[in-house]
Amino acid sequence: MRLLYHPASTPFQQHSRWLSSPWNGPEETDLRTPAAPTSCTCGDICVDETGWWRDGGTLNASTIPIQAAVDNANAGETICVKAGSYTENVNITTPHLTLAGEGAGVVTVTAASSSDHVFDVTADYVNISGFNATEATNSGKAGIYLGSNVDHCNISENNCSNNNYGIYLNFSSNNTLANNTANSNYGEWENCYGIYLSSSSNNTLLNNTANSNYGENCYGIYLSSSSNNTLANNTANSNYGYMDGCGIYLMDSSNNTLTNNTANSNYGDYGCGIWLYSSSNNTLANNTASNNGQHGIYLRSSSNNTLASNNCSNNTQWDIYIEGSDSTFTNNTLNGTTISFTYSGDVSLKGVGSPAADPAGQQTIGKFVSATNQSTGTWLFINFSYSDADVSGLDESDLAVWKHNGTMWLKDGWNGTRYLDTTGNVVGVNITSFSVFAPAAPEIAANYIPPDSTNLANTTGSYWVNYTWSAGTGGNATDSYNVSLNGTWTNETTDTFMNTLVAPSGWANITVFAFNASGTGTLSEGSVSDNVQAPAAPEQNYIPPDPTNLQNVTSNYWVNYTWSPGSGNVTDSYNVSLNGTWTNGTTDTFMNTPVGPSGWANITVFAYNASGTGTLSEGSVSDEVQAPAVTPPVIVITTPEPNGIYTVGMKLNFSATDDENGVASIAGNLTNSSGVSQDVDSGDEPDVGVYTLVVTATDNAGNTNESDPVFFVVYDPAGGRATGKGWFYPDVESTHPGGKADFKFTTSYKKDISTGKLDFKDKDADIKLKGKSIDWLVISSVSAQFQGRGTINGEGLYTFRVQAKDNGKPGAGNDHFDIMIWNGIDTMADPDYKAKNTIADGDIKVHAK
Length: 849
Fold this sequence. Notes:
The protein has 849 residues and is mainly β.
């Protein structure tokens, strides 16, 4: 069977072709007359390259289908745009409208006129997502434009590249721009922008990418006279301008927050990562501005800004450039060096490498900053942050900021203003003469202190104590040991053991220092010590060892236990508790007890030594075991076999065995295809019919077992024949009720072999069965039952089973037809298809002999 379907229920309807059902085999395409789209489940209006339609409506053809859909949409509706290429300039004047493209990678909207925006929004609460908006290349034209006083829009998951402006907000506030791409927008001799906000406030820019925009003055993200905006996790890299080329630029824009943005590798005559011009009260935190053509972060005429935890490195001129801007800088990292600073005047800073070898007797800590001034009277108080690892092996208390003047390192002249916080790991200094600065400290004098000895352990007997120890690790070498044993010192021994004699219950004490012989010789700072008492003289005891090897053997009605004596003192006898009853003084190493099926037995055995006053073992052996349960009889059905086919006169053959309890009774139950049951015995001969046999057996202990049902057929090769033709309506218990089913069959035995054929058709189920062989035929009274194999729609291997009843004339309204069909030959499973009812027309004739 192969079904064809039309995917009209998918969000973007493919109304131009029919598809092979996903449950068919290899895909087939059946080119038929295209059906008009009738479903639009992803929104209120659907659009493809040929037009637009509403759910349940017909296609409205249009050469500008997106604009046509917008013009016919109501406020609050969603327009779904299918994958394709569209050439339009879309003007959106309806508020509360959502345009959802199938994805920016598959939905491209090219400006029909490059002198107009691709999407021009002049209404509030408009959502646009999933589009590639391109080729609005004239000056000031954008892929997506939010016009004057347009608020509360959501622009997300779009690609606005290859325009003059990627995304442009003009006097537009309270909008969200998220996960958009605005790359490669250009202006040959004019400004170009990835994302441009003009006089637009309270907007959120999140996870946008504005890279590789190029032109005369070109910017990744540009804010002009725009305040209270939030920029987070945006990327503005590799933007290039013949004059200005900047990642993120703020002009006359205040109270904005920039967090976790990246602005790298931007170039131009003024190529900066982040540039603030006449912009105040902004917050820049955790941004990265590296590898830019001039400066990483540039502040010009911008005050009261807060810059914290930003990362600037490898910028061509300066990592931070400050001009006429009084702002706060905290924990910013310049090429791996983290600094905080206050200042007066115009200063510039850059993280650099070491300019020369370390000062004599000093070691720098790998943190270097070049600082310069652009105005007279400038001062800079700079604080370097460092880690404990940076000053490992150095005298941290003498850590100070040194200056390299181009020729030599200098310490004097400003370190009277030194600030050192060894708890917070900060060192700082006030600078009025500028150059390269670096923290440095003298190394701690070499020491030879060995590590303390470890693993001091003792072994004792009644008359002696032996000590051992090991050299410590992770420090200087241990050459020998100074040891005090019971108050007597032995110095510079290389042994790692020492022994002493003591009386029973006597005490020994030891202290061990490690010694390093370098220089004048040095003892370890600490030692290991021990104080131990030898055991008392042994007392005679007669405690026998615990018994061992307790084992059990069980049957349904008893448990037998055995055990063995332990090794050591003599075991004279045993005290045994069996099921709570004690037997003391027995010399047997076994004990038995009766139990019922599944009954429990528990035992505990102590050993006993009769010497002196008599002593039990300190421990015992115990066991708890359950006797096995009784099993039911085993049933064997020799005849019939499952799905067996037999001639009349066959005999039933079944039996049961029970080796433990014997079989008390065995009986069979035979049920025919009409559900009528009868009790049978092995040896009985069933009449002609279709049966299921179940055998039940009970043993002398009352345990019962029941066999799985066995299906079989008994037929009489001389029993007659059957024919029929007609149609019926499958009833409510059928697989596809209510349709029309046609049948035609003839079946009989020829030379003791069942023959015949069957044609059956259910148009609603797309089934056309052709019966090609008859496996068996059973004729009884007015009923004919037969089973065979055939194909459906010319394919496959299917098994069918038919019961046809001849209830007299006329056949219509009296005769009955019942069919079940399996895909394959497993008729024990539920049928894949079934249909039955009294026939509506035709006749069934059963000729019984």
